[in-house]
Amino acid sequence: MEDKLINLKKAFDEDIANSSSRENLESIKIKYLGRKGAVTQVFKELGQVPADKKPVIGQKINQLKGEISQSLEAKEKELENGQISGSTGNFDISLPAITKDVGSPHPLTIVKDEVCSLFVEMGFKIVEGPEIETEHYNFEALNIPLEHPSRESFDTFYIKDKFLLRSHTSPVQIRVMEKEEPPVQIIVPGKVYRPDAVDASHSYMFHQIEGLLVDKGITFAHLKGVLSVFTKKLFGEKTKTRFRPSFFPFTEPSAEVDVSCFICGGTGCSVCGQSGWIEILGAGMVHPKVLKAGEIDSKEYSGFAFGMGVDRIAMLKYGINDIRLFYENDLRFTKQFS
Ligand code: PHE
């Protein structure tokens, strides 16, 4: 009887070592522990064992049963975890790996980062400012008086009291000048807000990048030089830059800056409205009143400032015809920029 038990264990060990699927494991279980299984069978045979040996043999059968159950359980776990090597069973090593869905930077982030790094190369420092501003920083300090019609072009969301959502990034000019001694040389990316009706080219929230450089002896020529280098780097070496006289309350003189159309090269197409030029920036020499609001002596220092719309530049660069695409987070759109 004892030999029988030893042989039974051997046979079981062999069976389980060769087992590589759950179905197979189940049949082994039935073979040994089932109602007609081998272990059940030896229990029945216990009746024929001499009385004095019964307790010992009985114990041995129980022990065997315990070992078999344990091995079966362990094997089952092993199969569940797919630890079986080879292509047998329910694990197929030839299946392609599960690919990870990797995200991609938003097109506005790509353009913002590119513009900022071009200015960082020229010595500008990146600074940010608050999106909730006061009338003082958004308007008064920038030489936009309360009742002045120029406020209309900076239509604004008011919050309450004198708080508002900034309508441009220019207030950061004042905040930095107040804190720092010239030379000041900063680039300011950020969100701005205007209560515009939403359409293909308007959004109540969009992005600007502001630039400010203040030092001794800064002239309009420096502004032209810096912006010409910038536009060539952003749109290509052949890009020409044109300064058109314009008006901003916080700069004097002021200019609007156009680049030669990078689609048609200046001959005229639908992107540049047949003019050959595309407007991308507002700029000018910092108004003495603005320097004063920033606690900088305009007799000693001068500076230039510029501001551009990131959304507009991204639309031009990627040929996107609707600003709303930036804000809908449709993966079919955003995935194209990875
Ligand atoms: N703040 C202006 C705007 O929002 C842009 C600008 C910035 C113009 C700095 C001149 C100098 O349109």
> Residue share in helices?
25-40%
For the secondary structure, the number of strands is: 9
List unreliable stretches of 5+ residues.
none
Determine the oligomeric state from the structure: single chain
Q: Return the average pLDDT rounded to an integer.
A: 91
CATH superfamily label of the largest domain: Bira Bifunctional Protein, Domain 2
Provide the CATH top-level class of the largest domain: Alpha Beta
Count of the separate structural domains: 2
Q: Beta-strand level of the residues, as a percent range? A: 15-25%
**Radius of gyration using CA atoms only:** 39 Å
CATH-derived architecture of the largest domain: 2-Layer Sandwich
Please write the string of helix (H) and strand (E) elements.
Answer: HHHHHEEHEHEEHEEEHEHH
Structural class: alpha+beta
Number of helices: 11
**What's the end-to-end separation, in Å?**
72 Å
Overall morphology: elongated
Lateral arrangement of strands in the main beta sheet: 1-4-5-9-8-7-6
Q: Identify every distinct bound molecule in the structure, by name, code or SMILES.
A: phenylalanine
Report on the biggest sheet. Answer: 7 strands, mixed
CATH fold-type name of the largest domain = BirA Bifunctional Protein, domain 2
